[in-house]
Structure formats: C-alpha cells, structure tokens
C-alpha cells in the first residue's frame, strides 16, 4: 500500500489526503485499509462518506475531559496461551468486570464485515485476512497489522456498559490484547522477521502514535495481566484448538513472540513511546498451569486478579 501512495505526513490532514487519493484511484486494495482507518478513528463521516476532520478532534477532546470510574486493563500473552479461557473466567467471576474479546472473527471475514458497513467493490478479493497473513506474510503482514490495530482501536473506544458506570464497587473493563501489543509484540516481531519492511514499519509507527495521541485517555490502560507460558506449552494448546489458519505456525514463531513479551513486560527493555505505558503495573500469571481444568488454579488466579485490580 505504501508504494502506491504519494508522500503525505501522517497527521489528521494526512489521513484525509490519503483517503481522497486512494478513493480517486478506484482500486479496492488502495482504499480498503485507509477507509477502515478513517472510519475507525472518526475522520470520515459514515453517512456522507466525506472526510471529516472535526469529528476526530471533537471526539478526542471530549474523551480527555470525561473522567470515567472504570479501570481499563488488557490481557497479554502468546498465541494459544489461554487468553480466551482466562477471559471467560474473568467474565464469570464478577458482574463489575466486562471482558472485550479479541476481534478474530473480523480478521477471518473482512467481506462480511465490510458488506454491513459500506459498499464493497465487485472486484474485491479480500476475505480471511488472518489466513492470508499466515500463508504469505511478506505480502500481507503490514495489511494485517494495520487492520488488526484498527479493530483493536474500535474495541478500546467502545464505552463501558451502564452497569459498570453505575457500579458501586470497582468496575473494570478488560481487553483481550490491546493496540499496544499490536505494535510492541506482533508488528515489531514481523518487522524484525523481515515481513514488514523499513518503510512500512515507519508508517505503521507514525499513524499508531498519531491515534494514541489523538484519543489520549480513552485508549490508556491502567494495568496489564501477562499470561506467561512457555512456547512449548502454547504450541501444545495451539494444536489442540485446531484453528485452520494456524496449521503452518512453527515453534520458532511462538518463541519469537515469547521473547517480545518478555522484553516488554518482564525485562522492560522494549523501547516504549508512551509515558504512562512505560511504568504500567503488570500482573504475571503462570499460564503453564492447566487453569481450565484445575479449580484451585482458577481460584488462585481470581484472587490475584482481585488484589491487582484493587491496587490500580
């Protein structure tokens, strides 16, 4: 995508220019991700399909002014570490906790997603972007990481439900991964593997920083829960769940992701570009434990999570 577009600075105005240019080229491959980017962050008015810069500014300013009692926490960890199982455990543990699941289904069926929200070109060939990325990472990694970040952003921008806002206890909104792990784990890993080139990596970081800065408090996290398990254990679970797109995933890929998690959340050696994220509290849980089938392990996890949330 970057090679097809003229040079513009990645600012709100830059996003507007990119969308106008891509639309004028009438090529779905040019337009789709940019359209998703602008609609997700409010630059385009969905009714008029015209770029609307003021909506982004209004949204970002109001989000900074509106103080919410709801704490925001993400669950981080390797592929097949047990995040979805853990998310269900949290959801059932307290009515004051709301879990936002990872938008995997959107990555698996882009045509279904886009057909509901906007006109799809009859020449569009996109469908299962997750599978496309695994099959041809050199071609699709940048596209996938762009779209995955947009879907995560949309998730993190969803307002808390009324029951959390009205809670007399300690309400917490929990995200299954975040826009931060999208950058500092998965996109970074693809860059280091050579699947995202240097130009794409610079562009990704630029617009990622722009969105974080624009939405400010609304996408900040108060804490991170790190489900920590060996790559070997994750590989065992990956094979058991049998997700079709992951058939070709090798152990060395999981080892690379494990190293990225360790650098970011344990060693603190990853270069972080957002002040609050640098010193964010992290709860480490030993996900090598079979907490899905072990009641004592589940109880231990919930106790630790409650104490962690209380300290935020």
TrEMBL record:
Homodimer. Signal peptide: none annotated. It catalyses: 2'-deoxyguanosine + ATP = dGMP + ADP + H(+). It comes from Cyprinodon variegatus. GO terms for cellular component: mitochondrion. Belongs to the DCK/DGK family. Keywords: ATP-binding, Kinase, Nucleotide-binding, Transferase. Residues 73-309 form the Deoxynucleoside kinase domain. Its EC number is 2.7.1.113. This is deoxyguanosine kinase. GO terms for molecular function: ATP binding; deoxyguanosine kinase activity. Gene3D superfamilies: P-loop containing nucleotide triphosphate hydrolases.
């Amino acid at each position: 995508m970057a090679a097809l577009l003229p040079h513009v600075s990645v600012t709100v105005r830059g996003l507007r220019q990119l969308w106008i240019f891509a639309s004028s080229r009438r090529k779905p491959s040019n337009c789709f991700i940019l359209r998703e980017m602008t609609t997700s962050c409010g630059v385009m008015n969905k009714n008029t399909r015209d770029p609307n810069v003021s909506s982004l500014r209004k949204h970002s300013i109001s989000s900074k002014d509106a103080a919410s009692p709801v704490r925001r926490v993400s669950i981080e960890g390797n592929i097949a570490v047990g995040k979805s199982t853990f998310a269900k455990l949290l959801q059932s543990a307290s009515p004051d906790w709301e879990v936002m699941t990872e938008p995997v289904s959107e990555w698996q069926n882009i045509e279904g997603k886009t057909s509901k929200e906007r006109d799809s070109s009859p020449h569009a060939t996109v469908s299962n972007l997750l599978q496309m990325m695994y099959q041809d990472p050199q071609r699709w990694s940048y596209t996938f990481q762009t779209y995955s970040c947009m879907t995560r952003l949309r998730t993190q921008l969803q307002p808390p439900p009324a029951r959390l806002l009205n809670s007399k206890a300690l309400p917490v909104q929990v995200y299954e991964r975040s826009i931060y792990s999208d950058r500092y784990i998965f996109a970074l890993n693809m860059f280091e593997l050579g699947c995202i080139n240097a130009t794409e990596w610079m562009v990704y970081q630029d617009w990622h920083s722009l969105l974080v800065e624009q939405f400010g408090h609304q996408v900040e996290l108060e804490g991170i829960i790190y489900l920590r398990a060996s790559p070997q254990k994750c590989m065992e679970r990956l094979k058991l769940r049998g997700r079709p797109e992951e058939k070709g995933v090798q152990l060395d890929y999981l080892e690379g992701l494990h190293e990225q998690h360790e650098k970011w959340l344990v060693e603190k050696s990853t270069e972080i570009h957002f002040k609050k994220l640098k010193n964010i509290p992290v709860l480490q849980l030993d996900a090598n434990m079979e907490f899905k089938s072990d009641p004592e392990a589940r109880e231990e996890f919930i106790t630790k999570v409650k104490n962690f949330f209380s300290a935020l």
